[in-house]
Amino acid sequence: MNGKELHELLGAYVLGGLDDADRARFEDHLQRCAVCRDGLAELETLPGLLGAVPVPDAVALAVPAPRVPRTADPSAVVPQPVLDELAARRRTARRRLTALVGAVAAACLALGFAAAPLLAPANRPDASYSVVADTGIQVTVGMVKKTWGTELAVDGKSLPNTGKLSLWVKDRAGTEDRACAWMATPSGRARVTSATPLQYSSIASVEVRNDQQKTIAVITVPGA
After folding, report:
1. Per-residue pLDDT tens digits for 131-165
2. How many CB atoms sit inside 10 A of residue 206's CB?
3. CA 175 to CA 173: how far, in whole Å?
4. Is the pTM of this model over 0.90?
């Protein structure tokens, strides 16, 4: 796998769409590539926002639109080399978009998470809770009441910088729901917007777990 191909794995890496071998190769590449590290920092909040894209829509986006023939305009003659170069650039852009959107669809299917509208800011929370764990991990969760459940806005600091992290919500009856999951970032920071069908009034706690499903931070929600 060459350097260009490794660059194009960034979107799938952020979304947890790589197998163990490719993830290891990309993480090795990440240590030596400042461009990919900068890109990873810019995308660190993306996984928790993508669940708002319905899986059928995400899959549809990954399929190139059918080509519509155009009637040639004799007055606009473009040299063939220019057309070939433009076509090559479009193919490259389409491959990158398809890889990223395809990873989004796979993540939605595999993780089953739901989140706020894509790249939209979270609503003003009805309640906000914070915790600082003994390990130094800091997590703040803002909650917004919805008719269908609860929207969650998570801000984490000093989190593990490797592996996959997940957000779990527990209600007072003991029911658990995984609200979202994301790949750890080198900075240990994460801002994630997600959601759960559990009603705010029934939520007892919110947990952050590592890739061994060990709880690393717990926020206890006071009873209503």
Report:
1. 999 999 999 999 999 888 999 999 999 999 999 99
2. 24
3. 6
4. no
